[in-house]
C-alpha cells in the first residue's frame, strides 16, 4: 500500500541499511546513515542542511545517524548533524535541528520541535507538540507531555543561552513552561500548566503559575487505588526495559540501585 | 490552477465519489471512501495505516469515510478507521488518528491534533492547534479555541485513559487545559488559559489557574452592548443551522427545547 | 544537493526573479511575485488560493509578493494576497493567510500560524509556534516567543474581531495569551505564560495569570551582570540595523530619538 518508491530522492552520499522502507516524496540528503530495519514515512526530509548551505559554497552536510529499528512517521524534518539511538520513533511533522543527540528507544510525538544542541538520554518519551529549546539536557526515562516548552534566554532578547536540565524518571505535565537554566531533579512531577522558575529537588511535586512546591511525590495517592503511584517505575512498565521483570529487579542489574 | 493531477496516488481499493477534486502529491490509501463533491488539498495522506501495518503482514486498512461536500486543506494526515459526517472541513496540517467519529458540519483548524478514539457531535468548530486526547467525548455545537488541550492520564505515566466530556453549546477559550475525566456541562464558557480540574455545571463560567467558578454565563454582559451574550446561540448564527431562522424557532423544531 | 527541480510546479502567471532557488515538490500559483535571490524550500505552497477559489468560477488569485533575499523553509503555506518585505525568513511549516503585510527583515519560526488581516512592521522576530489572530497590529522590532497567542473575539463566538496592538521594541515571552483589543505600548516586556487582559503602558513589565504590572522594565536587573538589560536595544544588536553602530547613534539617524 505504501512504500511504492514514488518520487523518492536519496543522495548517493547517503548510506541506507538492510530492510529499510522509505515513503513516497521523501528526500534523504548527503551523509545520512539509516541503519537496518528502519521505516521512514512519506514527505520527510532527512539530513536537511543547515543555514550555511544556502550561503557558503564550501558547505558539507554533517553526518546524521538514524539508529536501527527506528520508525519516523510522515512529514518529519530532521536536520543534518544529529544522532538517534536504536528504536527511535516519531509521530508526524516533527522538526529536529542540528546537534541533537538522542539515546535509545526515545519517542517524539507529532509536531514536536527540537531546536538543536540538546541531549536526551534513553527512553525519553515526548508527547505531541513539545518544544525543547537549545542547550537543554534531559536524563533517562523522562516523559514530557503536550505543549511543554523548555526556554533558554533569561532576558529576551539576549545572547545568553542556558537551557533546563531534567533528571532521570521525571515527568513534566501538559502546558508547562520551564524557565532558562532551571534544574529539575530525578523522579519529579511538574503539574499541568505550571511555570517553573526555580530548581526542583528530587522527588518533588511542583505545580502552579508561578510553580510552587506542593509535596513529595511519594506522598501522592492515586485517586483510583488510594495507593502511591510514584516513583512511577514501580507502577508502569509498558515499553520500559523493566517490562515483565519489575523495576526492583531491573534497577539493581542496571545501575539504578538508588532509584 | 490547482488540481492538475500531478503525483497523486489513489489506491485501487479506495472509492472516490462524483465531482471530487484531489490536490497534487496527495496519497489516498486502501478502503477510503470519499463521498461526492469533496475537495482534498495538496500533500495530504488519507487513510494512513495504523502502527500494525508496519509490523503485521496480515494488516488490512480499516474503512475511512469522508462525508459529502467536505473540504480538507493541504498537508493533512487522516488515519484509516475514522468517520466524518457531511460538510467536514479542515485547515492545514491537521492530524487525525484512528477511531475518531465526527458528526456533520464540523471544522478543525490548522495544526489540530486529534489523538483518536474520540467522538464529536455536529457543528463542532475547533480553531487552530487544538489537541484532543483519546477517550474525549464532545457534544454538539462545541467551539474550542487555539492551544486548548484535553488530557486523559490522571497520574502520568499510567495505563488509565479517561478523557473529558463536554456538553452541547459549550465554549473552551484559548490556551486552556482540561484535566482527565472532567465533565463540562452544556452552555458553559471556560475562560482563556484556565486549568480545569473539576466538573463544571451547565451555564457556568469557569476561569483561572486553577480554574474557579466565576459566575453564571447568563449574567455575563457584553462589553460592547451591555446585554447578555450567552446563551450564545441567540446572538451568533453564522454557519449554524438556525441561521436566518433564529435559535428560538430552530430549537423547538430540533429537540433542543430546553436549551 | 537540494534544488534539483524535481516535481516543482510554477504557474505561468507567476513572476520569478533572478537567482531564485525553489525546492522539490513546491507549488507556486498564479500572481505570485518572487523577487531576486530568494530561496524557497521543499514542499511549500506559495500563493495558496483563498476559500472562494473552491466555490466561485470567477476567482482570480490576488497578488503575493515575496521580497528580495527572502528564505522560506520547507513545508510552508503562504496564501495569495500577502506582502513580505525584503529579507523575510521563515522556519518550517509556517502558515500565513491572506492580507498579511510584513515589513523588512521579519522572521517567523517553525509552525507559526498567521491568520491573515494583520500588519507587522520591520524586524519583527516570531519564534516557533506563535499564533497571531486576525486584526492584530504589530510595530517594529517586536519579538514574540513560542506558543504566544493573540486573540480577537471578546465574547466567543461572536462577529466582533478586534486584535491586539503592540508597540515598537516590545517583547512577549513564551506561552502568553493576549486578549482581544489589548494595547501594549513600546519597550514592554510581557512575562512567560501571562494572560494579558488590560492595556500596558510603555516600558512596563507585566506577568502572571491574570497579568499584573510588576515594575518598569528599566528597573529590571540582569541576574548575570546586575545591570539593566532594558531597553534591550542597548544590549542586543545581533541582526538588528544598529549592529556595529550602537543603538544610540542609530536611533537618532532613524527617527527613534525618543526610544
Automatic annotation (TrEMBL), chains A, B, C:
Keywords: Transferase. Residues 6-102 form the Mannose-1-phosphate guanyltransferase C-terminal domain. Gene3D superfamilies: 6.20.70.30, Hexapeptide repeat proteins. It holds the Pfam family GMPPB_C. It comes from the Bacteria. Belongs to the transferase hexapeptide repeat family. The lineage of its organism: Bacteria, Pseudomonadati, Bacteroidota, Flavobacteriia, Flavobacteriales. This is N-acetyltransferase. The keyword Transferase applies. GO terms for molecular function: transferase activity.
Amino acid at each position: 500500500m505504501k512504500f511504492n518508491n514514488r518520487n523518492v530522492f536519496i543522495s548517493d552520499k547517503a548510506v541506507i541499511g538492510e530492510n529499510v522502507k522509505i515513503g513516497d516524496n521523501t528526500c534523504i540528503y548527503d551523509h545520512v546513515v539509516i541503519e537496518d530495519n528502519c521505516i521512514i514515512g512519506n514527505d520527510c526530509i532527512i539530513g536537511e542542511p543547515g543555514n550555511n548551505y544556502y550561503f557558503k559554497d564550501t558547505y558539507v552536510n554533517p553526518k546524521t545517524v538514524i539508529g536501527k529499528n527506528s520508525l519516523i512517521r510522515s512529514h518529519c524534518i530532521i536536520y543534518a548533524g544529529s544522532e538517534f539511538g536504536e528504536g527511535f520513533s516519531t509521530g508526524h511533522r516533527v522538526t529536529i535541528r542540528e546537534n541533537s543527540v538522542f539515546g535509545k528507544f526515545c519517542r517524539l510525538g507529532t509536531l514536536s520541535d527540537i531546536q538543536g544542541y540538546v541531549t536526551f538520554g534513553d527512553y525519553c518519551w515526548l508527547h505531541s507538540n513539545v518544544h525543547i529549546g537549545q542547550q537543554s539536557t534531559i536524563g533517562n526515562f523522562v516523559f514530557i507531555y503536550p505543549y511543554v516548552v523548555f526556554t533558554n534566554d533569561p532576558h529576551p532578547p539576549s545572547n545568553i543561552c542556558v537551557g533546563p536540565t531534567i533528571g532521570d524518571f521525571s515527568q513534566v505535565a501538559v502546558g508547562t513552561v520551564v524557565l532558562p537554566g532551571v534544574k529539575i531533579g530525578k523522579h519529579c512531577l511538574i503539574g499541568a500548566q505550571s511555570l517553573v522558575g526555580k530548581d526542583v529537588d528530587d522527588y518533588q511535586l511542583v505545580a502552579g503559575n508561578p510553580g510552587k512546591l506542593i509535596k513529595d511525590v511519594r506522598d501522592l495517592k492515586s485517586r483510583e487505588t488510594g495507593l502511591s503511584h510514584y516513583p512511577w517505575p514501580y507502577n508502569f512498565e509498558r515499553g520500559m526495559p523493566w517490562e515483565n521483570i519489575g523495576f526492583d529487579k531491573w534497577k539493581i542489574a542496571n545501575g539504578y540501585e538508588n532509584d
